[in-house]
Write a structure and sequence with these properties.
Length: 167
């Protein structure tokens, strides 16, 4: 599994980006929400990825945040009839927070406004994810309530390795 790519942005379109990693260009399909946060061409980039393996292709999907990738994987792995293209359409049409709120509140109308997502599929998403997202939304709210203020946080800055290099 390819978890992320770190390199320079070689090219970008609203639905895809090419990342140059040590002279190898990786084409990554992205949602509009990630496109809006891409750096300028030629600038360094760290993008989270999901490798989707099919019989005829290996396709990389890229995300500028972990919640986007998590929602993508949740849709692809836990909702029948949702493939990677439709999961990208969901991420392009609605923020992760708004999506979670729509599912928790059984708001099929908001979900069905996403291009490519009909009422039946939106209803299936609500049905299949309501328990999963309801529990996680409550957990996230509790975590935020008990989290230390940002200045007290010991979380590493983006780009900082999680483990120190071996010497």
């Amino acid at each position: 599994m390819i978890t992320y790519l770190a390199g320079k942005l070689a090219a970008a379109l609203p639905t895809q980006a090419v990342i140059d990693v040590s002279g190898v260009g990786y084409e990554v399909l992205i949602p509009l929400s990630s496109y809006d946060r891409l750096p300028l061409v030629g600038q360094p980039l760290h993008i989270l990825t999901h490798l989707h393996v099919r019989e005829d292709a290996h396709i990389l999907y890229g995300f500028m945040s972990a919640p986007e990738r998590d929602l993508f994987r949740l849709l692809v792995n836990h909702v029948s009839g949702i493939g990677p293209k439709l999961a990208l359409a969901v991420l392009s049409g609605m923020s992760v927070g708004n999506f979670k709120n729509a599912v928790v509140n059984n708001d099929v109308a908001s979900l069905s406004k996403i291009i490519g997502l009909g009422k039946k599929t939106a209803a299936r998403i609500v049905l299949e994810l309501s328990d999963t997202l309801g529990v996680s939304a409550v957990w996230e709210a509790a975590s935020r309530a008990h989290a230390p203020p940002p200045e007290d946080s010991q979380a590493p800055q983006p780009g900082t390795p999680l483990f120190p290099p071996r010497t």
